[in-house]
Amino acid sequence: MKRFHIALAVADLDASIADYSARLGQPPHTVVAGTYAMWRTDQLNFSINRDPARAGQLRHVGFEDDDARGFTCEADVNGIAWENFSTVAQDLKIISTYGVPVHASPAEDELIRN
Q1: Using CA atoms, how far apart are residues 87 and 46, in angstroms rounded to an integer?
Q2: CATH code, 2-113
């Protein structure tokens, strides 16, 4: 599976989670309280990060790709960061950047702890 990834900066994480959950028709897959949330749909991997100074701005784009090895990031010709990562690589990046998330599925929390 390959999902398009887009990441935005937001001013108010809780208000943004409520808004984007309504727009996407589902709650976030992963939340790190006060700082980060991410949704995985069939076609989209969408994340938000609390960064009031950059609210409403694009942080980066890319692909969540089951065939990806590790986590890579490179800028395109316009200076936009493009990431490419597997699901596991993204989960590990979230932990190292924001802290241990709360997942929609308790089984995923157990996998992260192990």
Answers
A1: 13
A2: 3.10.180.10
